Amino acid sequence: MFFASDNSGPVHPEVLTALAEANQGYAMAYGADAQMQAVREKIRRIFEAPEAAVYLVATGTAANSLALATLSQPWQTIFCSPVAHIHEDECNAPEFYSGGAKLTLVSGGDRMTPEALRASITGEETRGVHGPQRGPVSITQVTERGGVYSIAELQALCAVAKEYGLPVHLDGARFANALVALNASPAEMTWKAGVDAVSFGGTKNGCMGVEAVIFFDPKHAWEFELRRKRGAHLFSKHRYLSAQMDAYLTDDLWLRSARRANDNCARLVEGLGAAGATFLHEPQANIVFASFPRATHRRLMDAGASYHLWGAELEGEDESEMLACRMVCDWSIGTDQIDRFLSLL
């Protein structure tokens, strides 16, 4: 009954097999391996973007930070949600890799609105040389609260950014989960909506540790290559990144894994609702924020359930007090785990 994080699950067997196969013999280093070319072509085909520049790194923080650094200048500010991963969970890495670009938090919750984004953008570049200049807009899909922007919502946010000539970055650590939730195409959820660069996640969805960075305009390619090298994120034995991403994209493993995670999350949500739990946010992909009594949390955790309380403490005398928690389903969660968890509610 492990719902702590989709970072915590096992590597998919198909990815492990690909790694073992890649471990035979020799391959050129630093991304010159043959598999990387196959990965590049697969991503270009999947995204309907034949000219896209495609690179691999090992972590989501590197993907986000290096992509945003490529899209911004040190004197600019990056617009994002107050709960964006780049703000709350990356230890100022975007600021570090960009050489000092700040983050401007767009008022509201996990999903920005065009109105709030426009207000934040117009609030900058008001002090001439003394203040930060307007920089990229970063959108998280799936959001940190489990929400999914519709295609129309993405288009509206991108349209605001384009009014001011600003590039748009999509943090897609859970890209596949959002895509299957929307039943959209990768192109529809990115460049067709106005997105310029994507951090395309693999680690949370069955890979060992690999993320792709995709620029739909190849003019950014050389700068990103330099920043990746300077930032110590160019792997010498790159074939082990390529092998993971190649397996991830083969036979739609990335979509199959995300669909399983989302479907099992829906099963969990249905059972929680039937048991009287309340939801802090509408579950739309593979993340659930729910609230139920302290006594229930104790019973679940005593039975071995693993998940995170959210702004609450398990210790306390009032067993009926409602405590919030965060639960995440990864590709490996089985219905047996979910049903056992629900039986304890």
Automatic annotation (TrEMBL):
Superkingdom, according to UniProt?
Bacteria
Keywords of the record, alphabetical order, are: Pyridoxal phosphate
Which cofactor does this sequence's record say it needs?
Answer: pyridoxal 5'-phosphate
> Which Gene3D superfamilies is this protein grouped with?
Aspartate Aminotransferase, domain 1, Type I PLP-dependent aspartate aminotransferase-like (Major domain)
Where the record annotates domain Aromatic amino acid beta-eliminating lyase/threonine aldolase, the positions are 3-290
Q: Which InterPro entries match?
A: ArAA_b-elim_lyase/Thr_aldolase (IPR001597), PyrdxlP-dep_Trfase (IPR015424), PyrdxlP-dep_Trfase_major (IPR015421), PyrdxlP-dep_Trfase_small (IPR015422)
Q: How does it assemble?
A: Homotetramer.
Q: Say which family it is in.
A: Belongs to the threonine aldolase family.
Q: What is this protein called?
A: Low specificity L-threonine aldolase
Species in which this protein is naturally found: Ruegeria marisflavi
Q: Print the organism lineage.
A: Bacteria, Pseudomonadati, Pseudomonadota, Alphaproteobacteria, Rhodobacterales
